[in-house]
Amino acid sequence: MAGAVNARLGYVRLASGLALFVYVSSHYLNHALGLISLDAMEAGRLVFAAVWRSEPGTVVLYGGFLLHMTLTLWALFRRRTLRRIGPSDVVQAVFGLAIPPLIIFHVIATRGIHEMHEVQENYAYVLLSLWQWDPMAGIQQTAAVLVVWVHGCIGIHYWLRLKPWYVRVRTPLYTMAVLLPVLALLGFAAGGREAARLLADPAWAARFRAEVVVGPMVEDWVYEARDAFRWLMLGIAATLLAGRLVVALLERRHIMIALAYPMSRTVSIRPGSMTVLEASRLGGIPHASVCGGRGRCSTCRVRVGPGADRLPPPSEEEARVLKRVGAPPGVRLACQTRPLADLTVTPLLPPGAQPKDGHARPDFAQGAEREIAILFADLRSFTKFSETKLPYDVVFIINQYSREMGRAVESAGGRIDKFIGDGVMALFGIEGGPEDGCRRALAAAKAMSENLAEMNRTLAHDLKEPLRIGIGVHVGPAIVGEMGYANAVTVTAIGDAVNTASRLETATKDYGAQLVFSREVATRAGFDITGLQLDRIEVRGRAEPMEIVVVPDAATLRVQP
Ligand code: FES
Question: How confident is the model at residue 8 (pLDDT cuts 50, 70, 90)?
Fold first, then answer.
């Protein structure tokens, strides 16, 4: 229940932040018109005011601000530890807290005097105030422009980076994120200079003073209101801090529970006092959290072990995110789970997880035992061949070869596991089962042979002799999952069956054949081996010799994926 409420509040915070971002963007666009003229700025301001000073605009703006500020303070209040928070989180939080004190004077001196004293302020008045009469206030507003913008952009980035399409639009968005505040500040400077020049003209100055009259009483009111707001903000901050200390003291009197992590690490917390993610941070345990604990990215997910039965059930939002990534039962979002009793947790993603890790992933990604077909292929005598070639030629040929082999595997419905130099490892049947996998692996071997023959024809002028390949295929149980580090994480398989497939590929050298596969592969694929050479070979780790099928030319196989 609490998780659901928090997730909903997170969306309200996001929506109110977006409304404020739209307001700020339109404000900056208005400033940028100063690059054209003061008149253009003023014309823009009339449109801007018509929108944001209308009743709906006022509700969205001030309602959004109050909601966003309150929910941000609440999120900070609920945070039990500030350890291991990323630098951009820190910048966003600090800049967010700095915004009210930075902008309050500007808000009172514009909207405040308009509402309370019916002063019809205009751009010239604001620009002269900041540019000519009180340059320190001008510097403060310049800082405010940047602080507000950086805070908003980090929030938008956090939100969008979980979207699969974000990578495609990132460059134009970054360009706009840099361009808009720069244009706004340039417009502000150009408008300020123009207003200062116009003020030197007695006729313009007289007209200006007649239009915008801000007497000493209004001026005094502005400073009094500013001071009152600053005291109010200080009071809110002090109350929150005091409240947090009281809660911490009360919580200290509770009994403790233990969260057990892999490698025998344990973190003690008070029941229900913090999320698993906060406990990881408290205990200095690296834990992925791409969205910063907002319950959106799923990268903090953990497998929960003993003690899971005493956890509150996932909220609707948490369940939705877990479903989106295809998480199996027993997996929870660490940032949304507050343990009430001892619990064993295992983070499922490495601390350096990327936003893409929050996209839907197959159920085997986190590790599963599957019976699959494994194919190994290797170019024969390629090392010797490469010694007689220029590095450029070697890379060119390897790339051509990798592309052709990759196509062969994919056209047969397999999954390339890895390329290592001139070697290829591919997996088949992870989802379709071993029978399907064996059929597809044999079809891939045939396609590889055909593609290589075609490549040899195309490169006949560049090759002293045709490239030759050896392919081994075996089927058996293997542990399948995403393994590796940072950008080098791929779906791969480990186990005896993998080693055996590699051994069969090596055996092609002994038989001078292009393909060797285990009899088991033929049986599972329903493949007719009549007329093919059969043999038995020793395989390390097997008590009995293994029955194999030897095929001199894999292109002659009669198989369909
Ligand atoms: S940190 Fe993103 S969902 Fe938990």
Answer: confident
Token pair for 108? 């009172």
The atom number, within ligand 1, closest to the CA of 301 reads 4
Rounded to a whole number, what is the largest CA-CA distance in the chain?
Answer: 108
Q: For residues 556 and 324, which has the higher predicted lDDT (pLDDT)?
A: 556
Q: Which atom of ligand 1 is nearest to the CA of 321?
A: 3
C-alpha–C-alpha distance, residues 427 and 415, integer Å: 5
Distance CA 492, CA 122 (A): 65
Q: Which atom of ligand 1 is nearest to the CA of 291?
A: 2
CA distances in angstroms from 497 to 158, 255, 260, 371, 374, listed in the order given: 42, 50, 34, 9, 7
Residue 261: how many other CB atoms lie within 10 Å: 19
166: closest CA among 68, 290, 348? Answer: 290
> To the nearest whole percent, how much of the chain has pLDDT over 90?
55
Residues in the chain: 561
Cβ(295) – ligand 1 distance below 6 Å? yes
Kindly give the pairing relationship between strand 423-428 and strand 469-483: unpaired
Give residue 317 CA to ligand 1 midpoint distance, Å.
Answer: 12
What separation in Å is there between the alpha carbon of 351 and the centre of ligand 1?
12
User: Mind listing the pLDDT tens digit for each residue in 268-305?
Assistant: 898 888 999 999 988 888 898 888 888 888 899 999 99
Contacts of residue 362, Cβ cutoff 8 Å, sequence gap at least 6: 326, 430, 431, 491
8 Å CB contact between 403 and 443? no
Model pLDDT for residues 205-263, shown as the tens digit of each residue: 888 888 776 777 888 898 899 999 989 989 998 998 898 888 777 767 767 899 999 88
Whole-prediction pTM value?
Answer: 0.58
Is 295 in contact with 11 (CB distance < 8 Å)?
no
DSSP code per residue over 159-197: HHTTSTTHHHHHHHHHHHHHHHHHHHHHHHHHHHHHHHH
Is residue 69 scored above 60 in pLDDT? yes
Closest CA to 474 of 513, 428, 511: 428
Binding site membership of 557 for ligand 1 (Cβ less than 6 Å) = no
Comparing CA positions, the residue from 292, 22, 62, 290 lying closest to residue 152 is 22
Average pLDDT over residues 331-353: 90
What is d(CA 256, CA 242) in angstroms, rounded to the nearest whole number? 23
